[in-house]
TrEMBL record:
<dbReference type="Pfam" id="PF04607">
    <property type="entry name" value="RelA_SpoT"/>
</dbReference>
<dbReference type="InterPro" id="IPR006674">
    <property type="entry name" value="HD_domain"/>
</dbReference>
<feature type="domain" description="ACT">
    <location>
        <begin position="660"/>
        <end position="733"/>
    </location>
</feature>
<keyword id="KW-0378">Hydrolase</keyword>
<dbReference type="Pfam" id="PF13328">
    <property type="entry name" value="HD_4"/>
</dbReference>
<comment type="pathway">
    <text>Purine metabolism; ppGpp biosynthesis; ppGpp from GDP: step 1/1.</text>
</comment>
<dbReference type="InterPro" id="IPR004811">
    <property type="entry name" value="RelA/Spo_fam"/>
</dbReference>
<dbReference type="InterPro" id="IPR012675">
    <property type="entry name" value="Beta-grasp_dom_sf"/>
</dbReference>
<comment type="similarity">
    <text>Belongs to the relA/spoT family.</text>
</comment>
<comment type="function">
    <text>In eubacteria ppGpp (guanosine 3'-diphosphate 5'-diphosphate) is a mediator of the stringent response that coordinates a variety of cellular activities in response to changes in nutritional abundance.</text>
</comment>
<dbReference type="GO" id="GO:0008893">
    <property type="term" value="F:guanosine-3',5'-bis(diphosphate) 3'-diphosphatase activity"/>
</dbReference>
<dbReference type="InterPro" id="IPR002912">
    <property type="entry name" value="ACT_dom"/>
</dbReference>
<dbReference type="InterPro" id="IPR043519">
    <property type="entry name" value="NT_sf"/>
</dbReference>
<dbReference type="GO" id="GO:0008728">
    <property type="term" value="F:GTP diphosphokinase activity"/>
</dbReference>
<dbReference type="InterPro" id="IPR012676">
    <property type="entry name" value="TGS-like"/>
</dbReference>
<feature type="domain" description="TGS">
    <location>
        <begin position="422"/>
        <end position="483"/>
    </location>
</feature>
<dbReference type="InterPro" id="IPR007685">
    <property type="entry name" value="RelA_SpoT"/>
</dbReference>
Length: 733
């Protein structure tokens, strides 16, 4: 992993003239008693970073060194050993300067006099955000949760971290802590080991960083089950010696064959990891001997084409075992892993497993997403956005490949949760996590923490700044609710709160209000919505008509219902002012809304040409449904909750609408990509995809597609129906 060390870089004292000159460490750094701890990291950085970046690393070390001065690790060594070791792991991945600075500083804000502002001032926003992100992850209290939720935590970490470098630093941090676990109390050691196996090794795996995944698994097993680990390790060492001869025979046979056909390749015997042996024994109930009796080899070649040629040669050299060939080049694993896998019958009938891949795939399998964050050649250090794009492209590539080649439910589900999270994760100032639906506001958060906090909240600080109670939160934010004992819920909150708990508590409170207060609030709300018109100037006939329409005995009852959020103020305002088309709705696809905010119902996803009706949902405005949608059967019972609306075809002609399709099909290789082609050919787009298994042969795929109108939708459906093995297609309602 280490590139050539530039001559002269690590010299202390007077410099000799050099070809590429790296700056001498500043005197303050050289004088540190921990200089010798830092030096190997510095050399490593000099081996791939530009010379002008090195002073930044020096500066970060210097601050961390001073900040942790006097602190000790559990082993009794100076604390600075830890951040430096973490930075070394980051530098071994060849990550950028900012990542190394952040790795050096990752424990300073939490444990020392250094503040966020210090880091921001001296190292910039990005480094500060990286340090913050790692600190936040540190505060997650995994051990409070049942093991069954481990998967949720992994997803949560992925979802709440916008900059993947935070996760890489956290993985490096965990790796070094695992290496030095021996100094901790046994119970603490076990807890950290379990958490590592449940949470962090799977994350490293998901990101394709097998170097770190393997190390975390081996260390985790050794700490969690020291006896089992020792027994297995001894058994593996013994078996290895017995196997040497067979391994060499097969290795030679493979090499000879490749030479004969003039294919250049690296051929390696693969050692089995103790953790993977352990897992196979537990999960597949295999005997130790059965596992060790399989001989594994890896062949690394220069290009994809050669991979398939080598495969042919191997199937010719040894008899392939039917059904055990896997083409992970055409269909990479979820984490981007690529290789050909095959299983053969070796000399004397021994099972032989061969992996065939290119050098590039080999690199990727070791470093995964980290490879895309690598520091590039001189002068082209990736800005964070460029690198972020790289990493995103990496993920997208995997998806494209997968989608065109297979319809594995597991894959589609996996990607869906990663890319379209519909939950957000936010923190209390103490680091406790709350998951809320997307769109949640500080009010929802306050009620989620405790009803009392909700009832008395008057404001919110998000990431230490004041934040409106009605604004939507996003993942990763730290939310602090400001309360006052005299504060009370406001009817206005109903227009932005989304969680059922918050909404019902607010409503409950409003109901308990003296009706007098309700009437006043309702009156004020309605007057505010009547732009320019005064309530007492509205003709009495008009008011009587409205009261009849909303089934209210008198005006005060109407005001009270407005205050309680039972009737939408703007609707009443619109009726009071007459039903003529509003100026506000010009240019909108729907007419008749009175300029109210509206959205399309997710249940029936109406498109132009459908007979539609608007349902008035307090807090959400209007929701446009299909007239026959089963979710709104009470039109006749509660007419005041509905508005008649129409499509404005002059506007919709240039718009796309989303609607759902349900396809039943007989699964086969490539069918998903043919469907996606059909959609494409019909001039439509797939917005989301979901699949489930109906029975042994039948899959159900749910697509959301974009169409202009009903005619267009019919054309799309015809195209899909024409794909072989598609059995039925329905519009989703
Ligand atoms: Mn740490």
């Amino acid at each position: 992993m280490l590139a050539n060390k530039p001559a002269g870089a690590p010299h202390i004292g007077p410099t000799e003239p050099e070809v590429r000159s790296y700056p001498v460490p500043p005197e303050a750094v050289q004088k540190s008693p921990n200089f010798s701890v830092y030096l190997p990291l510095r050399e490593l950085c000099c081996s791939y970073l530009d010379p002008d970046k090195i002073p930044l690393i020096d500066k970060a070390f210097h601050l961390a060194d001073r900040a942790h001065d006097g602190q000790k690790r559990a082993s009794g060594e100076p604390y600075i050993i830890h951040p430096v070791a973490v930075a070394v792991i980051i530098a071994q991945m060849h990550l950028d300067t900012e990542s190394i600075e952040a790795a050096l500083l990752h424990d300073t804000v939490e444990d020392t006099f250094v503040t966020e502002e210090d880091i921001k001032r001296d190292f910039g926003d990005t480094v500060m955000e990286l340090v913050n992100g790692v600190t936040k992850l540190d505060k997650l209290r995994f051990h409070d949760y049942r093991e069954a939720q481990a998967e949720n935590f992994r997803k949560m970490i992925m979802a709440m971290t916008r900059d993947i470098r935070v996760i890489l630093i956290k993985l490096a941090d965990r790796t070094h802590n695992m290496r030095t676990l021996g100094n901790l109390r046994p119970d603490k050691r076990k807890r950290i080991a379990r958490e590592t196996l449940d949470i962090f090794a799977p994350i490293a795996n998901r990101l394709g960083i097998s170097d770190i995944k393997v190390e975390l698994e081996e260390l985790g097993l050794a700490a969690l089950y020291p006896m089992r680990y020792r027994v297995l390790k001894a058994a593996v060492t013994k078996a290895r010696n017995n196997r040497k001869e067979v391994v060499n025979t097969i290795l030679e046979a493979i090499k000879r064959r490749l030479q004969e056909v003039k294919i250049e390749a690296r051929v390696l015997g693969r050692e089995k990891r103790i953790y993977s042996i352990y897992k196979k024994m537990v999960n597949k109930e295999l005997q130790f001997r059965e596992i060790m009796d399989v001989y594994g080899f890896r062949i690394v070649v220069k290009d994809v084409d050669t991979c398939y040629r080598v495969l042919g040669q191997m199937h010719n050299l040894f008899k392939p075992r039917p059904g055990l060939f896997k083409d992970y080049i055409a269909i990479p694993k979820i984490n981007g892993y690529q290789s050909l896998h095959t299983s053969l019958v070796g000399p004397h009938g021994v099972p032989v497993e061969v992996q065939i891949r290119t050098e590039f795939m080999d690199q990727m399998s070791a470093r995964g997403v980290a490879a895309h964050w690598s520091y590039k050649e001189k002068g082209s250090e990736p800005t964070s956005t460029a690198a972020q794009k790289n990493a995103q492209r990496w993920i997208k590539n995997i998806i494209d490949l997968q989608q065109s080649a297979s319809s594995s439910t597991e894959f589609i589900e996996g990607v869906k949760t990663d890319l379209f999270p519909d939950a957000i994760y936010v923190f209390t100032p103490e680091g406790k996590i709350y998951d809320l639906p997307a769109g949640a506001t500080p009010v929802d958060f306050a009620y989620a923490v405790h009803s009392d906090i909700g009832q008395h909240c008057i404001g919110a600080r998000v990431n230490h700044r004041m934040f409106p109670l009605s604004r939507q939160l996003s993942s990763g934010q730290t939310v602090e609710i400001i309360t006052s004992p005299n504060a009370q819920p406001s009817a206005m909150w109903l227009s932005s709160a989304v969680t059922p708990k918050a909404r019902s508590k607010i409503r409950q409170y409003l109901k308990s209000l003296r009706s007098q207060e309700c009437v006043l609030i309702g009156r004020r709300l309605l007057q505010n919505s009547l732009k320019g018109v005064r309530l007492d100037q509205v003709p009495p006939e008009r008011i009587d008509q409205i009261l009849k329409e909303f089934k209210e005995p008198d005006l005060n009852a109407l005001f009270a219902d407005i205050a309680l959020g039972n009737i939408l103020t703007v609707i009443v305002a619109k009726r009071l002012q007459g039903d003529e088309q509003h100026d506000d709705e010009k240019g909108l696809p729907i007419t008749g809304t009175g300029g109210l905010p509206f959205s399309f119902a997710q249940c029936c996803q109406p498109i132009p040409g459908d007979h539609i009706i608007a349902h008035i949902t307090p807090g959400k405005g209007l929701v446009i449904h299909n007239y026959n949608c089963l979710n709104i059967r009470d039109q006749d019972k509660n007419p005041e909750k509905f508005l008649n609306v129409e499509w404005d075809q002059a506007v919709t002609a240039n718009m796309d609408f989303q609607t759902g399709l349900r396809i039943e099909l007989e699964n086969r290789q490539g069918i998903l990509s043919e469907i996606s082609n059909a959609v494409d050919l019909a001039g439509s787009r797939i917005e989301s995809i979901n699949s489930e298994i109906k029975d042994e042969n039948t899959y159900i795929i749910r697509l959301t597609v974009t169409v202009r109108d009903r005619l267009h939708l019919a054309a799309v459906m015809r195209r899909i129906k024409a794909v072989p093995n598609v059995q039925k297609i329905f519009r989703q309602r």
